[in-house]
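G., the chain you wanted modeled:
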Amino acid sequence: MTNCIDTIDRPYGTGPVERAGSTIGRVIDRMVAVAAEGATGLMLMLLNWQRQARERADLAGLPQEILKDVGLTRADVEAELLKKPLWLR
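Predicted structure as tokens:
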């Protein structure tokens, strides 16, 4: 079975419908790419927040001897834990 579009002889190449379709396709492709970049950026930001929260929790759990070895005091740790949440900076 032949496609009826194939049977039409166009002396001037593609018609306006095909050109519009390819333009719309390019626009949709670009929109998907931008959305994917945004989603990737959002995911990276959330992963960074999670990492920092985990690091702060680990820091809070360190014993005084280890804090002293790295040059921190319990007050330094408390100040780090009281910082604003990352989404409010």
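The CA atoms of residues 60 and 77 lie 6 Å apart.

Shout if anything looks off.
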